[in-house]
Design brief:
308 residues, alpha/beta, Rossmann fold, 8-stranded mixed β-sheet, 8 strands
Length: 308
């Protein structure tokens, strides 16, 4: 790899995405589909408790279409999308997903922006974060009737560290099955949008990110390479994986584009439907055109694989 992946927590936190885009369709099927997201009303329910783990209360925000549809692919029960924030696994929260949540709700989906335990002061090491988002998906399925959700049509959207978690939701089923109330529900999702996500943490073992990842994963690569691979989506690829939309900036200095290229290639080789779209931008999509593409491509992808 010509460019090392500097997955230091500070680097990813400093560039976390808040998704403050505006969809501005100008033509074409994907852009016409996103036009409906501009004006429809949204119902928001904040701070819904989905679990308490080791004394930590975990919440999510729900974004629903305020006007029910009685026919078509977005009629109840609706497809849903789990929204997973970035922040280097150490900071930020579900509020950074509010714009995407509203956008998807206006488009006929139910969005669930989730909090998960953050790694701080050597507490909540990996895989606490994966356990939490898997628990959230299972909670959504258990409460599908309450929110008018189709439990068989749930996707995941994540940025940066959140994209790593979203990717694993599309590849692996429940790791921690200790909650009997959720035992019968799967945590796998049916479609994944991965934005600027780290896909192979092992490439960071000889870079500045080594010290952080050693603490986060609980051991150095030399001592426990399996732990590093377990947290790396590229090592979990199989033909059973959910379809993927991967978007990445060509000027990303936090997670190099090669990470997404490698993941895309492995998914393609395994026969998994995957699209890799690059944008002329950095780790966070700041330009209007990059954010417009993010909105259009995300909606078209979820329409195809969740609402189609």
């Amino acid at each position: 790899m010509t460019k090392s992946m500097t997955l230091l927590s500070a680097a990813l936190c400093a560039s976390a995405l808040a998704f403050g885009f505006q969809a501005q369709p100008t033509g074409g099927s994907g852009e016409q589909a996103s036009a409906r997201a501009l004006f429809s009303p949204v119902k928001v329910e904040q701070d819904v408790l989905y679990a308490t783990v080791a004394g930590v209360a975990l919440h999510l925000d729900v974004y629903e279409p305020a006007t029910p549809e009685t026919a078509g692919p977005h009629a109840q029960p609706r497809p849903a999308v789990v929204l997973i924030h970035g922040g280097g696994w150490t900071s930020l929260d579900k509020s950074t997903m509010q714009t995407m949540g509203r956008f998807l709700a206006r488009s006929g989906f139910v969005g669930f922006a989730v909090d998960y335990r953050l790694f701080q002061k050597d507490e909540n090491r990996w895989p606490a974060q994966l356990d939490d988002v898997q628990r959230a998906v299972r909670w959504i399925r258990a409460n599908a009737g309450k929110y008018g959700v189709n439990p068989d049509r749930i996707g995941a959207f994540g940025h940066s560290a959140g994209a790593q978690l979203a990717a694993l939701l599309g590849m692996e089923d429940t790791r921690d099955n200790s909650d009997p109330a959720l035992a019968k529900y799967s945590s796998r999702v049916q479609a994944v949008v991965d934005v600027s996500g780290p896909a192979d943490l092992t490439v960071n073992r000889d870079t500045d990110g080594d010290a952080f990842l050693t603490h986060f994963l609980g051991a150095s690569y030399a001592k426990d390479p399996a732990a590093w691979r377990q947290a790396s989506p590229t090592f979990h690829v199989s033909k059973q994986d959910a379809p993927f939309l991967i978007m990445h900036g060509t000027h990303d200095e936090s997670v190099p584009l090669s990470q997404s290229e490698e993941l895309s290639q492995k998914l393609h080789s395994a026969g998994v439907p995957v699209s890799l779209i690059t944008v002329d931008d950095a780790h966070t999509f700041q330009t209007p055109e990059a954010r417009r593409q993010l909105a259009i491509q995300t909606l078209a992808f979820f329409d195809r694989y969740l609402a189609g």
